[in-house]
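Sequence in, structure out. First:
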Amino acid sequence: MSMFCRQCEQAAKGTGCEVVGVCGKNPEVAALLDLMMYGLKGLAIYADKARELDVRNTVADMFLIEGLFTTVTNVDFDPVQLAGKLRKCYDLKEQVKAMYETAYREKNGAAAPAIADGPAAWVIADNLEGLVAQGQAQGVKSQHSDPDILSAIEIIIYGLKGMAAYAEHAIILGKTDEEVFAFFHKALAATTDGSKGLMDLVGIAMECGKLNIKVMEMLNTGHVEHYGHPVPTKVQLGTRKNKGILVSGHDLRMLEELLKQTEGKGIDIYTHGEMLPAHGYPGLKKYSHLYGNFGGAWQDQAKEFPNFPGAIIFNTNCIQRPADSYKDRLFTWGEVGWPGAKHLTGWKFDEVINKALECPDLPDAPGQEILTGFGHNAVLGVADKVIEAVKAGAVKHFFLIGGCDGAKSGRNYYTEFAEKVPKDCVILTLACGKYRFNKLEFGDIGGIPRLLDVGQCNDAYSAVQIASALAGAFNCGLNDLPLSFILSWYEQKAHVILLSLLYLGVKNIKLGPALPAYLSPNVLQFLVDNFNIGQIGTVDADLKASLGQ
């Protein structure tokens, strides 16, 4: 059985995974995920048509986002779990189809035009083998024969996947928006519309970047309303003698519920990967048993998790094949899935808590402390100090060095770049790319730390707010600021943030380690011509270019 996937930075040979995914998914899982995208397109087609008649299905709106999130890299590897989601996708598609057809008949006095083929006409297979066969027939390359249009379609789809991840976190915090739901339907349906030309699809991709800013704002608002604005906070990287639970992922609401349920039980909660910024939120740091951060970026979990003797839970993507040494104490939650791992649903975490209580204590081994919590509110609270430092020449340049980390060679570039940034420059960072250098000592400039951890990948919203405030203070555009974007990417959440930056007109972005395999030569040239986007080169050359030397 073969496969083809090129949605992440680590696409095999720079073109695509054809035997097994670098992420770990096998051809069976790849086919089921391709079928999920096919089914979601059918659901989107009918949801889009129904919205034109002012008919909505809230459950379908939510599921479309959940389904897209499921297909993000390193989320769900469980065929049985995926089969259940595919059945729900099909049933909801049929429900929305019936709602649309009823509304059309009531409005027009005639039956709605039939859709005889394509994803809207999909009829689900009745067993796992049949689902896999259906998925194999609906792979990436089946979407269009023209390489440029196929590239634009993939850009839209991967943008929607990334935005769906942020939207689901926002929804969990009670933040929804009709414009966002409508765009998901419209944009996904448009990828099946043969009348759309290349520039039509480019326009939709830019609109995806625009809507993602709104989604990240919704998520930021949800975080702040629930937990307050992040504040600069020292985070312990060592451990203390107690029972422990390690939380990996992005979802703060899940972490909050776990903190509530473990209070007073002799269990310390540790963050991992993108959960590190949780320590900066007053509403979370008030729990004294939110003790520290264990390990580094997602790709190191296989060598780090065997050294964590407690229970481990993933609440979003970034899971890798677990080793036998810790698989029996690993749990998944939300859209995450791994065959054989215990999957939790809802908001009760008794099973992971009981497992933690059965496990040995962590060692008493205090370690280094690092700073997080420099969201836009914290930075803008000292904006006058920053502006004066720039005017006085104490701060010459800002570098945003961040994004997704990964295991592929070439990512030491970001460590070297951060180390070589001149001492009169400030580094903003976010997402797990910061693990390449966030344990290094950078000092400060007049009391302003030279390394400011803005937060998770979705906190690119905060970085944009900081940049916009600086542009306003200096009465200039974003591209006129002494600010350079040096970005690493791995999966679709980073992809949609890039679309947001392009929508804002940000130019001269350096991206790496490799450029996306799904960019056709002509589409790449369009990005170069309009945004001067480029692949990272050597540190010295890129640093000189950023500083205008």
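Second:
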Amino acid sequence: MSERRKNRIDLIEDKIDELNKTKWAKSMRITSGVVWNLFLLFIVFGLTLSVFAASVGAGYFASLVAKEPLRSKSEMRDAIFNYEETSEIYLADNVYIGKINSDIERKDTQLQQVSPFVIDAVYATEDEYFSEHSGIVPKAIFRGLLQDVTNSDNQTGGSTLTQQLIKNQILTNEVSYERKAKEILLAMRLEHFMEKDEILEAYLNIIPYGRNANGQNIAGIETAAEGIFNKKAADLTLAQAAFIAGIPQAPFGYTPFKSGGGLKDEKFLKPGIDRMKTVLFRMKETNYITEQQYKEAMAYDITQDFREPALRANEKYPYLTQEIQNRTIEILMKIIAEKDGIDPERLDKEDKLKEKYYILATRSMKIDGYRIYSTVNKPLYDKMNEVGQSFEHYGFTYTREEKDPHSGEIELKEDPVQVGAIMIENSTGKILSFIGGRDHSKEATNHATQAYRQNGSSMKPLLVFAPAIEYGLIGAGSPVVDVKFSVKQPDGSTWAPNNYTQSLEKGIVPAREALSRSLNLATARLYRDIIDQRPAEFLKKMGISKLTPGDYVNFATSYGGMDIGMSVEENTNAFATFANGGQFIDAYIIEKIEDMHGNIVFEHTAEPVDVFSPETSYMITDMLRDVLKTGGTGAQVPKHMNFNTDLAAKTGTTQGYGDAWLVGYNPNVSLGVWLGYKERKRSLYFGLERQTLHPSTRTSTLFARIMNAANEVTPELVGAASKFKQPDGVVSRSFCGISGLAPSAECSTAGLVKSDLFNAKAMLPTNADDSIISSSYVLVKGEKYLAHPTTPIEFVSSGGVGVNESFIERMLGPWKGDASKLFPANSVFASNIVSNSIFEADDVAPAPVQLTLSDNTITWNDSASDDVVGYYIYEDGVKIGVVVDGSPKTFVIGSGSYTVKAVDITGKLSVISNVAKIEVILPEEEIPVITPPVVPPPENGGDPEGDTPPPDENDTEDPEQQ
């Protein structure tokens, strides 16, 4: 076989030799040699050129990425996963209400929570070779480069999912070769540091998807699914997945919603729908879906799935979300500052530093994907604000002129009565609910937490009565003095306050009555006795944040006259101190903050502050119960409540009714209500002539309705059946009601012994009363006064109970006052005791009276003079009767002439009245006759008892007294 094959080869070689000897072959040989040499030359040149081009390209590529730092694995992974996520707000019991309002809305999700249709659609349209490549697809890059160089109309792009992730998370959207080169380099590097599923998951979480139904910018597949179709990403259908997957190529062109929210017009929806069809076609071509699935999805009307706009959390709950955001920022400011090594306390002292961290905290709150959990109870908040919105007794709405800052035109703006209310859980400090105002679009200030106003008489238990009990100065029923005074202030002005009724002076009253009836004079005098001990320190301990140096020394602070004021939250929180047995627990609204990975960033911890003793707190609570009883300033509250609970409360109004308050509490919750205008000078009293309710009636009614609502929706929080427990240190003791000292025999005989609660650890009435003396008195206009030396004896009552001068001086104190007002007619002690004050007569004879005769009875009017103690009756010029002031001014007469004279406290007599007489005329018919006064002739020596009429009608004194 081999020999035969060799012969064949020889024959072939011989044949070739013959051909080579021909002229044609010789010519071909020369030509082919030239061609071959040229080919070799071109090959060498091409290779040289390619090497040169590659070297140049590589050098150029290297120059483009020269400044790009070599990133470590951890750096690149941190950068990739550092995408913004919108923070979310949760109320009590993990009730979700919405997202923080931010520039772009995004929610993190995991790959297993995404529909397979979405993943297939992304592969088919964005990166067909994702599972195969190592970060880049070279042919796609060269295709894109060629299209760019030739300026082709058909720009298909060449970025893989990895490259897009690099562009969005590490680089920028800048169009340049430098950015593209860095993108390629980093994409290949990232593939070494991350699994394919991690890259895909990150891509799905960061890619922008246009707008949601409300017109807000959105990013991330979960946010897109919810914002466009109101679905979870895991539940998207094929058509929905294809529509969403097509959006990233032109987010705002393909999104179905307008920038202001709502669906686009039909012609503007078409590009997005056409893009969806392109995605479906690619999915079919790449065998991700079947022909049948493709046809069904293509025929489906996707527009029926687009969701309707919905109110955002900040639109549905503007006051609530605003408050939660503000407090979250305050917390994050301190956290971020501490991370930077800054003492958080510096933020309160350095404005520029505070501004810096405020900006950082605000940005962090919006984009760092926090889960913010608040204390607010949603059912209670909804119901409480429903009550606030439906309340019909707010009062008059003012209008004011205001220039529009944009148009410059003058517009009429409404200025309605505003409301602020808040409910706090006593034992924890949780803010359960609040009413921030009536219309956030017109007035964005949260009047429950951000508005600072003077708190009127609701200050009295906080600053005066509770400290006075704590200092051991008074018990619950100890006597205090409600008598007018006038004193010079340090600035030279005169301070002369009044009660609500300016003419009212209640004299000596029990402390609990002074508080329940909100008596200003008694409060101011009591505050005078304790101000040197700086009781405003108690306010500071209770979280009152706007105290000024003047608030510590000004007497007017005792009934709410602060320089700046306090918020409804602060006032209510302070009252909760009494409910907590004297411990102040600061109110709060942020329960905890978690980051997007579930790590706790912040969690509230309570830090109770001891302010008052449990004994003082209980006694004040018991005193404030009286506010809601008959005669108390909050007596209307129980009338409007539909359930019973152990409730204590205090009302308050400020000068000119600029503010009206009511703060109350039971063992479980405290509720504060405030009404007023934005402009403090406007008065709530305006409009009363139009049947508007009194300001205090309005707060009482609204308070009661809120309590009813709270008990209806959250009875477990209100705890209506709970009762305040009396501490062992609170005891009931008897005391002399006018002095507060231990009862003496004289005090007991006079019927002046009272009993009430005392703090046994602070003070008890042990020293015996020494204030009472025997007294003779007269009545002047129904009030008892000491008799003058010249007072006619028939008008003097003996055996009365009086008080000594030292008692009066002690009770009136350095501010002094009219001692006669210590026991006025409206005093609880008026029927038992006589003031030791001498009535200052006017040294003028009293005015005469006018008689009227009816049958056989004469009557007369009161003398117009203020110092009259009674009246003398005369028959034919002889005194026959005496009528003491306060007794009926009538007298039965017979036949004869009758006259009357008024007698003052000094014994001076008025001129005689007109004459009344009955004459007998046959046939024995009595005919009354009234004649003018008759002046009798003078008598020698006069009347030893002073009963003889004066010598003439101008003489005003009895002869005995001349």
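Remark: The first helix runs from residue 2 to 20.
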